[in-house]
Amino acid sequence: MTVRGLPGWATGIVGVVLVIVLWWLGAATVFSGLGSMPGGAIPTPGDVWLQLWADGPAFYWPHVSVTVQEAARGFLWGNSLALLLSGIVLVLPGVEKIARQIAVITDCIPIVAIGPIAYIVIGAPQRGDPSGTAVFLAAMSVFFTTVVGSLVGLKAADTASLDIVRAYGGSRFTQLRLVRVVAGRPSVLTALQVAAPAAFLGAILGEYLGGLERGLGFAMLVAGSSANVDRVWSLALVAGLVAGLGCAVFALIARVTTPWSRAA
């Protein structure tokens, strides 16, 4: 059986194993001693695993929990505004050009440029609280993707169904509620699937600006400043796993709630 004939979960496992093998070989040979850090800047997967084991959940969980809170709040705000804007566009088509320009602007502004301004405006968080700047950057990271994905899906509604609603006196809002929301659900969930890890990355970038005592971004900065390469990589690995989990959650939701899209 070829790799192409394997089920999705098996293909994923093969891909992960391949990445780990290539990482291990590269760290032990070509990239050995690379960088200015003692022992090199790229540890082997074994070194990263030993660091994970030595630190334990008691070290990682406080940081992960703060970053997840920030990402979740930003995800909720950014996607809520994006879906609201998409709905307004379908009810009032005249504002579509303005809405698309707003979405493009949020995508074109570099996060590293807007981050310091957001930090000045929002301010540092209270002791132990999530960072408002991280929440804002998480929201910005998801807005464009969800606006575009939802508009594509909501506009893909069957014309005949829309005509039936119109023939019975339904308004554009009725078409949106009865037809477009159902037709656009697969595209919207796909956009949310992409937005979940994007929000997590935006939250981590927001934590780099400081003002926190916990968070994956903060922990990476501390580990990097102390030249603890293995911990930096272990934190990055944990961040990747959490982001991948967020993506997987929405993939599962899409699989359960939109079975017709798989059949198609």
From TrEMBL:
Q: Where are the transmembrane segments?
A: 12-34, 75-95, 102-122, 134-154, 187-212, 232-254
Keyword Transport listed? The answer is yes
Q: Where in the cell is it found?
A: Cell membrane
Would you tell me the Gene Ontology cellular component terms?
A: plasma membrane
The principal location of this protein is membrane
The ABC transmembrane type-1 domain covers 95-259
List the keywords (alphabetical): Cell membrane, Membrane, Transmembrane, Transmembrane helix, Transport
Superkingdom of this entry's organism? Bacteria
Give GO BP annotations, semicolon-separated: transmembrane transport
Tagged with keyword Protein biosynthesis: no
Look up and give the membrane topology term: Multi-pass membrane protein
Record-linked PANTHER family: ABC TRANSPORTER PERMEASE PROTEIN HI_0355-RELATED, ALKANE SULFONATE ABC TRANSPORTER-RELATED, MEMBRANE SUBUNIT
| Name the record gives this protein | ABC transporter permease
